[in-house]
What does this fold into?
Amino acid sequence: MIKPFILIVEDDEAIKNLIATTLETQHYHFHTAGNGSQAILEAVSHNPDIVILDLGLPDIDGIDIIKKIRSWSMIPIIVVSARSTDQDKIDALDAGADDYLTKPFSVEELLASLRVAIRRIHYSTIENTQQNALFTNGELTIDYAGGCAYVNEKELHLTPIEYKLLVLLSKNIGKVLTHNYITKEIWGNSWENNVASLRVFMATLRKKIESDHHQKYIQTHIGVGYRMLKN
It folds into this structure.
């Protein structure tokens, strides 16, 4: 697989150099931007495959940059920020970020997030080029056209809500989806604050797709949301 082109948006020179050195040692191609205006210009003119974005920039807040990029592109955006509250993470993820690393972060964390982003690019490419409506992840298979799902070739007996949740997670594999985003997608605005019900449905879904199997498909991000893992 061709190494993706990455845009680093960071105004702290030490952190920017750390990220750049990490990418260089892994043979990634990258550009850097030190403020929001430059970041938007770079994103428009060079069309990067992945963006690594600091939120605390001197001219434009990182949340606004995420929204601007999302207005024309669905490229993976990995946030790296000193803002560490759950609400900060939720705001960034709801704006369209794919992942959120809190400073200080390790090189291993950054590389792991990049691998997840690259897998998302790979899955998106397959989805755009294949004509069939099958999704496969480990022992899990979803037949979008048929409206059914299987684990190890055995059909799952899912409720309509469980199936909708499974499809939503599968179409965003590797991406953290917030409680607010999921409830709006599944039930609409009237359900946006009903996180307790979401947890119940997610628990029953997880039991059905993970019971008696060694593979884990759904990861809980406490206070934030859920992510489907690649198996």
In short: The longest strand covers residues 5-9. The chain has two domains: 5-123, 131-228. The domain at 5-123 is CATH 3.40.50.2300 (Rossmann fold). Helices lie at 13-25, 36-46, 62-70, 86-95, 107-129, 160-170, 179-187, 195-210.
